[in-house]
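I had to read the description of the data format several times before I understood it. For illustration, here is how one protein appears when written out as sequence plus structure tokens:
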Amino acid sequence: MKMINDYVRLILFCAGLLLGIQIPALTDQYTKRVDAKLLESSQLLAGFQLTAERYFKGDIQQLIQHYKQSNDAVFKQDAQNIQFIFERVKRLKDEFAALQGNSLVKAFHVLVRHDSAIMQETLASYSYIIILDPMAFVWGFACALLLSSLVESLMKLLGLCIFKARRTS
């Protein structure tokens, strides 16, 4: 029985280790996706930004207003498109800035405060990898210890409850 308990502990520890190592990998893949989307959106906005700099002292909101006030239906439609791209760049810049902290801050943001659409895309194309850097090992061992300690504590608590129930009856 002791040997089985030892193997269960070892399996739990390994599972926690592998799970923990995936946290930096997920953070890395999510950050790269945000960066790529920001780059692409910024490139889409660049031409409009040049026009805003040339005619509106760099104020893209004035360019959007100019497009909205135009009598041409195409320009009015483009005003909505430019506004969408402008707001997307702003959101992606905020998201990218949130991912510039230390690994704990980044992991918390990715696990709890992420952009839902970007996270769904990241998970849909997620590739399980093992990053060989010290922080990945720290995450791995921390999760391994946490998972194995938590499960073992629950098992001991359950054992105590069963033992007490048997003694009472």
Summary: Residues 2-168 form one domain. The helical segments are 2-55, 60-69, 73-98, 103-112, 116-124, 134-168. The chain has a mean pLDDT of 92. The CA atoms of residues 47 and 53 lie 10 Å apart.
